[in-house]
Amino acid sequence: MQQNQDKSAAPGIDKKMRQLEEFSTDHKGRELTTNQGVKLTNTDDSLKAGVRGPTLMEDFHFREKITHFDHERIPERVVHARGFGAYGFFQVYEPMAEYTKAKFLQDPAGKTPVFVRFSTVAGSRGSADTVRDVRGFAVKFYTEDGNYDLVGNNIPVFFIQDAIKFPDVIHAVKPEPHNEIPQASTAHDTFWDFVVNTPETAHMVMWVMSDRAIPRSFRMMEGFGVNTYRFVNAQGKARFIKFHWKPVLGVHSLVRDEAQKLSGKDPDFHRRDLWDAIEQGNYPEYEFGVQMLDEEQEFNFDFDILDPTKFWPEELVPVKIIGKMTLNRNVENFFAETEQVAFCPGNVVPGIDFSNDPLLQGRLFSYQDTQLIRLGGPNFHEIPVNRPVVAVHNNQRDGYHRLTVDKGTVSYSPNALQQNCPAPVAEEDGYVHYAERVDGRKIRGRSDSFRDFYSQATLFWNSMSGPEKEHIIDAFHFEVGNVKDKTLKQRVVDMFNQVAPELAGKIALGIGANPPVEPGGTGVTAASAAVSQENTIRTPLTRKVAVLAENGFCYQGLNQVVSLLLNAGVSADIVSSRMGMLTGTDGKQMEAVKDFTTANAVLYDAVYVPGGAQSIQSLLKTPDAREFINEAYKHAKPIAAADEGVDFLQAAAGRAQLAPPDSAGQLGTGQGVVTIRAASDWRSFGEEFVKAIAMHRHWTRA
């Protein structure tokens, strides 16, 4: 029996030995790298402001080396706790050697693996997806030069200018400490108290009160690097850059009432949407773009290009689209991958460098430090999702959760016992920091060019369409309306009078505050079309339609319209009072996959009601069906109906006065409502409905 036990255990032992061998290395004959696989040219001197100057915080190699040593003797994220991730790949459109020596930006035929994590900022892991909040948009590129992390948001600016204030803004936005309320919301006193006492927040608050803070899906939101970085080419020429991700499906959002209802109906709405899209082969795609400025252009604008509360208007600095990212694989294990992934803006590769953006400078330290406590020590780079695709060789040792079995007696540099291995590489093969000239006295302060807090907030307001402005006002009414301190409410009105007196007056009207005594404003009249979602891509692809039907529906109408929708890339769910097979007027059947308990208008992009007298009579007796239509109408979604279905729209409309534009005609269209009677031309009807779906919302109803 013992002999049999030994034999049965042998395969498992062999497997474990192979695993140990896989993580074993003696570093002989290897080149020195960081834990991200970036080759190093020097491990004896820290990065300084001059040979006799102070050590700089941006020295990522020094920080990695010393923090690893500090933690060698051997929780939920504070921010961005609720996230969802996926794998994919990136391809550059053309060689970028003129601008950067980053290898992953050179070969259009090459595919660089990526992992992307989308997230909300303020809420805990248990909060809802659709809350009003900034969305994280973090991309880890597994390049041949090591890992590169582009850690950004879906908004191009931030609340603060200097990283030293980051703990303050997060403490203010988080639930109030005495009762841990409210969760994942800025609709409370401490946030707005911080805002009115920190006027540099004005621009970011405008974005957060806009539709950008409640995206329709991760697949339909932009991403921004936020901070100013540098491209450096092989000749040593540097350019200032801003990074952009532009979704191929366009930029689209929810409305506030819809987003709040979704938080209850499906708190996983965004993660479910991303997961389902990838499983169905509707791979999310984002084009990658950069704004670039020569260093000589640094002071050519009426804003400071290093100020993280400012963006570079695309009309002044065009975005050059240089590649595309495709997400095509879901994770296998949420905790092992999405929860344990570790990003840091300091993870860069040759050809990408930093600027003196004071928010970025602090981020270079903060992210690395956070991972040490969250992932239990300095070896988080060995977790599979964080592991670079290139070999890692250095003399860092031990610490919590060490997987690598380092062989030999040498664990220091320089050394003679191992021929100084792993050895630094020549400058042309490793990471070399851009040799920026730095002069100045050590001081706690900021440039006077950072003092303009309101001009770009006004620019953003000017750039909004009428409906977008109404949504911003509505957001202020809800958010500031929940503030208890009346003095604080008044200060919000007075602060945003500096942005736009029209806005301040309407905020005051909705929250019980006094309108401004004197009109304010900045005098800025310029606008940027690029920041308005009215100017985005419009496509029906991957949209979802709810079809309301009961027994006795018109099979021909339902079948033909659904087929037309599918051909246009639109999916459809039949929703009925009970799930299961429904029988049409001709005896043919189709399956209702949802009922009014498991489905709601907020879960869909559009609604279709086919004809059939018996089906419509049943729907008219169903309050949930009538509410379904009114909810879709209220949220400006496309609605279509055929034959008796038109009668249902009219009967269900209630106070919305939902009347088709031409109920007597063959085909009626208008304000996103498409109707047909005496149906004969299903193709034209379906095509008009698809056009309405592509528009996303039909604000003219208001």
From TrEMBL:
Cofactor(s) for this UniProt protein: heme
Gene3D superfamilies reported for this sequence: 1.20.1370.20, 3.40.50.880, Catalase core domain
Keyword annotations from UniProtKB, A to Z: Heme, Hydrogen peroxide, Iron, Metal-binding, Oxidoreductase, Peroxidase
Active site feature: H80, N153
Catalytic EC class: oxidoreductase
PANTHER family: CATALASE (PTHR42821), CATALASE-B (PTHR42821:SF1)
Similarity comment: family membership: Belongs to the catalase family. HPII subfamily.
Domain of life per record: Bacteria
Presence of keyword Iron: yes
Pfam families referenced in this protein's UniProt entry, alphabetically: Catalase (PF00199), Catalase-rel (PF06628), Catalase_C (PF18011)
Positions annotated to bind heme: R77, R117, F166, R363, Y367, R374
GO biological process, one term: hydrogen peroxide catabolic process
Catalytic reaction(s) noted: 2 H2O2 = O2 + 2 H2O
Stated role: Decomposes hydrogen peroxide into water and oxygen; serves to protect cells from the toxic effects of hydrogen peroxide.
Protein name from the UniProt record: Catalase
EC number(s) on file: 1.11.1.6
Gene, per the UniProt record: katE
